[in-house]
Amino acid sequence: MADSSKIAGTIAGDGPIWLVGAGNMGGAMLRGWLDGGIDPARITVIRPSGTPIAGVTVLTAPPIDGEMPAVLVLAMKPQKLDEAVPALAPLTGEGTLIVSVLAGVEVPSLAKRFPQHRAIVRVMPNTPSGIGQGVMLLHAGADADAAAKGDAEALVAPLGLCEWFDDEALFGRASALSGCGPAFLFRFIDAMARAGEGQGLAPDQAARLALATVQGAAQLAAGSEESPATLADRVASPGGSTRAGLNVIDDGEALDRLMADVLAASARRNEEMAAAAR
Ligand SMILES: NC(=O)C1=CN([C@@H]2O[C@H](COP(=O)(O)OP(=O)(O)OC[C@H]3O[C@@H](n4cnc5c(N)ncnc54)[C@H](O)[C@@H]3O)[C@@H](O)[C@H]2O)C=CC1
Ligand SMILES: O=C(O)[C@@H]1CCC=N1
């Protein structure tokens, strides 16, 4: 999925790209960018630990005497935003595209903290961004023009599927699906493996079978013109063993109800974080 042609050229000119925070998510995005062919000389990672990352400049604090960032990517925890703002905000300007991956922190909350900006674009990535197979939700502030939105999309397109949202509230709710989603699927893989163990499989074998089955099924669905429901029916021979298992999943729409509760809980927490940042 990573397409180096999209990223090797200019994004927001050719000025510095600062990545603030390179933990689970920022680190995955950085890996995706480097694999996607971004010019590493453009990237400065700002992280309190200063732990080096091969190929890019790493600083413990923003450079106060350097060139203004063309892109400022915020990737610390939302709760750390206010700690980071005093050092960052004075260094942004009319030429700085602010890209925030912070869950819940809305554009007006960011604009209040970063009054000098070219545009503010929220991105909700997910961790498969690190292998170029992420999902990138995008939402831009009202003052973002088409060129700024194009630059934001060019930056994240090599990391995965891009989907724009005009409605910021819907963007927040969608993040429960794709931003949090990998965690739910990892739990599902583990649950399948444990169920396999319950049928007598060795733990390592059950884990291998569960992971390969999920990977194969996802790739089959991604490459198929048929819906997942039809693909499920193709596994379930009438009167066979799959149908017996599907009957358990379908009874009382058990899985649908579980996933509805899961996404609702995540979306609620997202809304709480939005309120805290306002
Ligand atoms: N983990 C995920 O799957 C996703 C995370 N996000 C968002 O990404 C952001 C980061 O989350 P994670 O990477 O999971 O957290 P994390 O805790 O793994 O990484 C955050 C990093 O920011 C650093 N940091 C803390 N204060 C800082 C400061 N003042 N300046 C620079 N760096 C600072 C920390 O040292 C840490 O390495 C959050 O805002 C979260 O909402 C969004 C989508 C998915
Ligand atoms: O858990 C979180 O708040 C972030 C947002 C989406 C995934 N991780």
TrEMBL record:
Its main location: cytoplasm. Gene3D superfamilies: NAD(P)-binding Rossmann-like Domain (3.40.50.720), ProC C-terminal domain-like (1.10.3730.10). Residues 19-104 form the Pyrroline-5-carboxylate reductase catalytic N-terminal domain. Pathway: Amino-acid biosynthesis; L-proline biosynthesis; L-proline from L-glutamate 5-semialdehyde: step 1/1. InterPro entries: 6-PGluconate_DH-like_C_sf, NAD(P)-bd_dom_sf, P5C_Rdtase_cat_N, P5CR_dimer, Pyrroline-COOH_reductase. Its EC number is 1.5.1.2. It holds the Pfam family P5CR_dimer. It is found in: Cytoplasm. Keywords: Amino-acid biosynthesis, Cytoplasm, NADP, Oxidoreductase, Proline biosynthesis. It catalyses: L-proline + NAD(+) = (S)-1-pyrroline-5-carboxylate + NADH + 2 H(+); L-proline + NADP(+) = (S)-1-pyrroline-5-carboxylate + NADPH + 2 H(+). Residues 168-273 form the Pyrroline-5-carboxylate reductase dimerisation domain. Catalyzes the reduction of 1-pyrroline-5-carboxylate (PCA) to L-proline. Belongs to the pyrroline-5-carboxylate reductase family. HAMAP family: P5C_reductase. This is Pyrroline-5-carboxylate reductase. It comes from Sphingomonas abietis. The gene is proC.
